[in-house]
C-alpha cells in the first residue's frame, strides 16, 4: 500500500510541477518588453499603456486615437558616427564619380571624395543641397527606391561591420510591437528623407510606407514612353526636423500623437506638442549613456545632440531612458535577423 501511495504522490507531484513550468513558460513568453530591465522606465511605459487601453479607465483612449510617433536616427537605430543617409549620399557620389571627372576639383564633391568632412561642411547649405540634388533627384520614385533598397541590403557600419538594418535597437523593436499589440498605430517621424526610409521601414520596423513621415523633396507627375511616373525634383518641401516635426505630423496624420519617442533636440518640438494637452500622454527620450555597447553622447555631440530637450524632459517629468541602465541588450543578436 505504501508503494502504491508513493507512486500516486509522485504522479501528483509531477503533474503539479508540469503545470507550474507551463505557467512559467507562458508568463515568460507574454512578458512585455523582455529586453528592458525592470525598473521605473519600463514600468512607466507599461503603466501608460494600461491606463489608455483599459476599459473604464479615466484615461482610456479609443483605439482610433492611439497614435505613437517615433524618431528614427538615434531612437530606432544607431546614428553614430554619422547619419546613415549621409553615408548613403557619400557612397552615391563615389559611385557616380566616374561619370563626372569635374568633381575632383569642384566643391563639395572634391572634399567628399577625399573624405574631408570639414571641407564638405564648409560648402554650407548650398553645397549640401547640391549633393542632395545629385543623389536624390532627377529620377522616378521607383528608380530611387531600387537604388536605396540595393544599397541598404549590403551597406555596413564602419565600426561594427554589421548591416545598417542590424544596427536597430532591440528594446525599441519590442516597444513598437508592444504598442501595436495594444491598438496603437506606429509612425516614423524623422528628419531623414521620406523616400529614403520608405523602401525598407516595413521590413525592418513593421511600419508601412504610408506611416513614414520624413523630410520631403519635390515630386512631379510625368508620362515616360506612355507610362505615368512620379519624378523626384531637387526642391525641399518639408524639413521634418525640430519645429517641422509637428507640421509633418499634422500634414500626414491629422491627429496629435498620444505618445512620442525621440533622442535629441531635433525631437523636442514633437514631444512638446504631444505632451502639452491634458490627459495620459507618454513622452520618452532615449539617452545614449552606454559607451561600451553603443556610444555615450549628449550635450556636445555633433550628431544627435541632446541638450535643451534633456533639460526640458527633466523639468516636465518625461520618461528618460538610460541606455546603460535600462536595456538588457542594445542590438539584436546577429543570428536573429
UniProtKB/TrEMBL annotation:
This is Nonspecific acid phosphatase. It comes from the Bacteria. It comes from Hyphomicrobium denitrificans (strain ATCC 51888 / DSM 1869 / NCIMB 11706 / TK 0415). InterPro entries: HAD-like_sf, HAD_sf. SUPFAM superfamilies: HAD-like (SSF56784). Residues 1-29 form the signal peptide. CDD domains: HAD_like. Keywords: Signal. The keyword Signal applies.
Amino acid at each position: 500500500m505504501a508503494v502504491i501511495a508513493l507512486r500516486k504522490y509522485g504522479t501528483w507531484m509531477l503533474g503539479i510541477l508540469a503545470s507550474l513550468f507551463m505557467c512559467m513558460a507562458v508568463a515568460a513568453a507574454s512578458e512585455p518588453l523582455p529586453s528592458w530591465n525592470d525598473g521605473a522606465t519600463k514600468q512607466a511605459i507599461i503603466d501608460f499603456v494600461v491606463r489608455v487601453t483599459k476599459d473604464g479607465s479615466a484615461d482610456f483612449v479609443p483605439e482610433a486615437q492611439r497614435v505613437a510617433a517615433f524618431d528614427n536616427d538615434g531612437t530606432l537605430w544607431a546614428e553614430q558616427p554619422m547619419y546613415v543617409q549621409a553615408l548613403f549620399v557619400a557612397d552615391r557620389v563615389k559611385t557616380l564619380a566616374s561619370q563626372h571627372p569635374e568633381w575632383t576639383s569642384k566643391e563639395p564633391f572634391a572634399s567628399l571624395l577625399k573624405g574631408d568632412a570639414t571641407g564638405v561642411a564648409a560648402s554650407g547649405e548650398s553645397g549640401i543641397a547640391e549633393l542632395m540634388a545629385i543623389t536624390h533627384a532627377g529620377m522616378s520614385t521607383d528608380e530611387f527606391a531600387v537604388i536605396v533598397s540595393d544599397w541598404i541590403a549590403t551597406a555596413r557600419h564602419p565600426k561594427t561591420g554589421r548591416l545598417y538594418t542590424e544596427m536597430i535597437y532591440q528594446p525599441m523593436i519590442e516597444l513598437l510591437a508592444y504598442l501595436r499589440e495594444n491598438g496603437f498605430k506606429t509612425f516614423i517621424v524623422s528628419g531623414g528623407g521620406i523616400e529614403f526610409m520608405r523602401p525598407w521601414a516595413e521590413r525592418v520596423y513593421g511600419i508601412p510606407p504610408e506611416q513614414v513621415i520624413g523630410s520631403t523633396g519635390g515630386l512631379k507627375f510625368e508620362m515616360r514612353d506612355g507610362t505615368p511616373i512620379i519624378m523626384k525634383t531637387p526642391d525641399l518641401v518639408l524639413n521634418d526636423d525640430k519645429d517641422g516635426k509637428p507640421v509633418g505630423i499634422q500634414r500626414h496624420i491629422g491627429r496629435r500623437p498620444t505618445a512620442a519617442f525621440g533622442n535629441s533636440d531635433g525631437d523636442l518640438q514633437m514631444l512638446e506638442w504631444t505632451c502639452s494637452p491634458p490627459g495620459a500622454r507618454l513622452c520618452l527620450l532615449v539617452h545614449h549613456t552606454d559607451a561600451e555597447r553603443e556610444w555615450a553622447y549628449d550635450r556636445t555631440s555633433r550628431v544627435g545632440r541632446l541638450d535643451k530637450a534633456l533639460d526640458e524632459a527633466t523639468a516636465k517629468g518625461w520618461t528618460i531612458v538610460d541606455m546603460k541602465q535600462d536595456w538588457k541588450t542594445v542590438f539584436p543578436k546577429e543570428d536573429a535577423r
